[in-house]
Design brief:
single chain; 249 residues; alpha/beta; four-stranded parallel beta sheet; 10 strands; 35% helix
């Protein structure tokens, strides 16, 4: 089986590429751009500036978007240029876990920085892959963050489904990503919006607890600020700053 090679003398580029490859458990070999390419290598990843140095037919020059470069390389390695169906699975949460399945195979996993950030992640999948159909599936739990995510996806020309998470028990080192994979592989019901976002008392208290953790015990944000953070109207760091400066509105 052919594998990827990372050929670079750029330490920062190497770190970014290898971090992403290891997160996905993708086998690779490390080389310098001047090295002879081993027989078991099918595609070489290098920086766009070092690409002219690498003497090989199948070389991918990566600029700033490391994930896009890896997508292109993996597609070239598998010989698969177009997918019949891509499915995005989302485990809703403050930092949603996201998994991408292509024709039944796990292609990518990632954490979105917020429910609203899921939209940009899905858009990168739309832009980065050739496919005939894409479906987005989100778990039914964590209603507030689920609805924030659903509202963020509003207007995208994709089928969006809500999946019962009852059988997506979380295990392993990355339970949210595993749950997202299982959600992607489970059929759901069509999601119809807009979806109401209203913070519960428990969610507000949890956000107050997070504010103490993030501020090293110095600040506990007010319930009003906590509600705004839970509902996606304010970032936690911004709420802590407002609390510190005496702005509680």
């Amino acid at each position: 089986m052919k594998i990827l090679a990372v050929a670079t003398d750029n330490f920062e580029f190497y770190y970014d590429i290898v971090k992403e490859l290891k997160q996905r458990n993708i086998p690779f070999v490390s080389l310098s751009p001047q090295d002879t390419i081993p027989d078991n290598v099918g595609v070489v990843l290098t920086s766009v500036h070092e690409k002219p140095i690498v003497e090989y037919d199948n070389v991918i020059g990566v600029d700033k978007d490391v994930r896009m470069g890896i997508r292109i390389a993996l597609n070239a390695l598998s010989g698969k240029s177009t997918y019949q169906r891509l499915v995005v699975g989302i485990d809703p949460g403050f930092r949603p876990g996201v998994a991408l399945i292509g024709d039944g195979k796990l292609l990518e996993t990632a954490y979105a920085e917020s429910p609203e950030a899921v939209r940009a992640l899905v858009q990168r999948y739309v832009d980065g892959y050739d496919f005939h159909r894409m479906i987005v599936r989100i778990g039914h739990g964590d209603k507030t963050n689920r609805n924030r995510t659903l509202n963020s996806l509003s207007g995208m020309a994709l089928r969006i489904e809500i999946v019962n998470e009852e059988y997506t028990t979380k295990h392993g080192e990355s339970p949210d990503l595993e749950a997202a994979r299982k959600i992607a592989l489970s059929e759901g019901d069509m999601a119809c919006g807009p979806h109401q976002v209203k913070a519960t008392e428990g969610e507000q208290k949890e956000m107050q607890r997070r504010s103490r953790l993030q501020s090293n015990g110095e600040i506990t944000i007010s319930k009003k600020l906590a509600r705004k953070v839970v509902e996606g109207k304010l970032k936690l760091g911004e709420a802590i700053k407002k609390q510190r400066e005496g702005e509680n509105q």
